[in-house]
Amino acid sequence: MLTLTHLLALSSVILVCVTAIAVMLGIAWRRHHAATAIGSAIGLNLALVSLIAVASLGTVAVPLLIIDSMSLFSTVLILLSALACVTLAHSYLSGFDGWREEFYVLLLCATAGGIVVASSQHLATLFFGLELMSMPLYGMLAYTYRQNRSLEAGIKYFVLSAAATTFMLFGMALLYAQTGRLDLPGLAAGLGNEANAWTLAGAALTLVGLGFKISIVPFHLWTADVYEGGPGPATTFLATISKVAVFIVLLRLVLNAPAFGGEWLSAALTVLALVTMIVGNLLALAQSNIKRLLGYSSIAHFGYLLMALVVGEGLAVETAGIYLLTYVLTALGAFGVVTLLSSPYSGEDTASLHYYRGLFWRRPVLAAVFTVTLLSLAGIPFTAGFIGKFYIIALGVEASQWWLVGGVILGSALGLVYYLRVLVTLYLVEPGLRQHDAKDDWGLQASGLVVVGLAFLTVVIGLYPSPVIDWLAFVAATSG
Amino acid sequence: MILVWLILLPFIGGLLSWQGERWGEKAPRWIALLTMVLVMLVCLLIWLTGDVQLPSLGPDVQGPAWSREWRIDWIPRFGIEIHLALDGLSLVLIALTGFLGLLAVLCSWKEIVKRVGFFHLNLLWILGGVVGVFLAIDLFLFFFFWEMMLVPMYFLIALWGHSGSPGKTRIRAAIKFFIYTQASGLLMLVAILGLVFAHHAATGTYTFSYEALRDTPLSDTAAMWLMLGFFVAFAVKLPVVPLHGWLPDAHAQAPTAGSVDLAGILLKTAAYGLLRFALPMFPEASQAFAPVAMVLGVVGIFYGAVLACGQNDIKRLIAYTSISHMGFVLIGIYSGSALALQGVVVLMVAHAFSAAGLFILSGQLYERLHTRDMREMGGLWGRLGSLPGFTLFFVAASLGMPGTANFVGEFMVLFGTFPTAPVIVVVASGGLVLAAIYSLMLMQKVHFGSAQGQEPLCNYDGREFSMMLGILILVLLFGLYPQPLLDTTGAAMDSVQQVFMADNPADQGTGTGGGL
């Protein structure tokens, strides 16, 4: 029976959905780009504020969803990323000559989907949330459809995502056939500890479906093309919200259902993690397009994160949380800078490395932001990324996963090569060309402030991570 | 609190000189100069008021007693603190950092003309990071600074470096430097974390504190692996021979100030790390490892010296001599005698001066001749005013001529090590012969022989002359009267030696520290 408490607990999802509807009606009434963006931002902010009230409720579980500290954490991440995407989209789409407003409706729907995924404790909501998140994404990726790349990205993501979804559905069906249950606690109880071939197959297929969304090697083939082709804000969404939500679900599955933590799958996960971190970094080495490079780098980062799934105890939840947080901050910053420098009006996004040559000497603040995010991605002290890497290595050492620790070290060394290459490009002598550039008043726009704020936050967390760590220690303690 | 200021000063100074570029090109240089003078003054103040000279070790005191200490909680979840502490060893090295920082600012006065503000930002941040390394006593904080100082050094090489031959660009050199040190640093992080978790398993508390972790009970194999984790990180920085690949490239491509910092201070952080962390925390494992380390030291001495003989690039030559000299340092560190450990300190200081002097000289040659290739030099004696004279002096210092500090250091290292490892010492002494060869070759190729031209080249101005004279005086001073230096670091070195040799009391009589 739904009570008021339940409604309150779900208020963030409800608010996001209401905003989506309100924005849609607003567009039907009168098109106005700025008003649409502001309306979306207000809605997301309200949802964020509502979380304060939700936090005081403790763990609330309705049959299909669970609102605990972990889902609260991921909801905060998702809403913040969505806010960043909205502001980025506003400046990005200002130069777009088609209909601009619908982008926000899609974005809000996808955000609601992300929150549902991260809070799901039932395979039905998991599937529903995933689709609610993915469907609008197809549209967002192909939004600047007059450019072939964007269209290609949308269609590619659509086809491959649909294929992955069918895998997952089949896996869910197998699990259902074994246990007759779809809710996670029921599944966990029904599967017991012994794993027969059918449960294994079911779990593995589900893993494939989810692994596609967070682009684990070998399900990563779409990543670089889609990242490269998609419009900046959509790529940002793909790299942050969609990955966070899916990873949280994977974490829940591994923590709750023993079949996912069994010896077989654990070994498979170890191999996948190792391969993902190495291959992601290796492929990034040869890129000269920043969006592709960041795409491969995000693959590598999720390789590191998989270690949390392999270990699954001790510091695992805390590590996953910290790493997700630092990754999201940095990825938002990096994609934010790329987006700020691009405009769909002047053709493809400004992602080729040589456009960034000498950026520091014409846009010092923007280049400094990019520097901070790159250093953070590389895990250098003074940035949040270092805290994340520290946690990952600590987790590996604590669990004596020496192979994975070795993989992280090798991956980091490889990663340095391409991060540093981009980094030094920002500071090299300026060439004559400067047709691709941020608008002169970029710093005054909301999106400029957002990017600077993200870089600032990255440094602050790198220097004083205690509050964040305390929060995630609490999350780990209450949902482990 | 004064320790915090020692770290903050360069960072703040760096930011100021970056922004100071708005007031003209001179402003960043003066701000940077002022900052380094302030750091030196603070060091002097501590030296005059502190009690670093007193041997603070009672018979039952374990480990160093700090003359100054400052701590505050940072990340309580893991027991990480911002914990700074200073003893004689760190004081000497920080003072050295300040002095070489001063030199680095001075020697780039004319050399660096592009993006002056940003250059000094990077320069001062390196120095800030290095001071942090010398002061941090919490292992997390130590690692934090250890990794942090790489970034500005990377920029220094990549942006203001000399572009070398094709395939050996400055950016490649910088990336190589970064990857070597970062990857080995991560190994150290793994070792630190292994130690922390071992401590957690034994006591139930997380801590990164130096004192607490030293008492961690470890099995022999675990201690050996963890020690190796630390050793590899320090060995890359020192550098020890199989891990030295980054050094010649980084030196050759770096601007003069970068080379001065690299050779003068960054290499010393590795020796400091060995003395402060690797030895005292894993005394048994280090002792078991000592023969291997000493052999590596000998290999380094010969490898560096032989390769130095074959170089045409003057900066590469000096870089290889650094490898050779650091071999002596490595031998001294693992000898376990107080005399040799004292010698290591003197040698580190002396090498910082002589290598900095030679790098500055080659920078000045480059400013005048626009080449670092010794085949295009020759016969410069008489055309360059007092530059060749200074070169002769620093070459003599580098080969360990009596009267210079280098002699005192090498002599003490070899003399102190002889009782424990006579064979090593005998072989290592052969390196001194090679040192004479490469030093004289440098002198011969650059300043004697047939001249390429007749017209005199630009002579020294006051800045350059006083800079070189300052280093020269210091080298002579510590060569003729090293006692103040030895007194300052005596207590610290004694405690290292006592911890290291704790299981082996028979060998303790090799020296009591504090003098020849």
Could you walk me through the main structural features you see in this protein, from its secondary elements to its overall organization?
The complex is a heterodimer of chains A (480) and B (516). Chain A is mainly α and 480 residues long. Chain A is 76% helix and 1% strand. The longest helix of chain A is centred in the middle third of the chain and has 32 residues. Chain A starts with a helix and ends with a helix. The model of chain A has no long low-confidence stretch (mean pLDDT 88). Chain B is globular. In chain B, strands 1-2 form a two-stranded antiparallel ribbon. The longest helix of chain B has 34 residues. Chain B has 19 helices and two strands. Chain B is an all-alpha fold.
Helix content of chain A: over 70%
Q: Kindly report the greatest chain-chain contact and the residue count on each side.
A: A-B, 30 and 33 residues
Count of DSSP strands of chain A: 2
Q: What is the radius of gyration of chain B?
A: 22 Å
Please give the radius of gyration of chain A in angstroms.
Answer: 21 Å
Amount of beta strand of chain B: under 5%
Shape of chain A: globular
Distance from N terminus to C terminus of chain B (CA atoms, Å) equals: 36 Å
Assembly status: heterodimer
- DSSP helical segment count of chain A: 22
Low-confidence stretches of chain A: none
Low-confidence stretches of chain B: 55-60, 505-516
Major β-sheet of chain A, in short?
2 strands, antiparallel
Q: Widest sheet of chain B: strand order?
A: 1-2
- The average pLDDT of chain A is 88
> Biggest sheet of chain A, strands in spatial order?
1-2
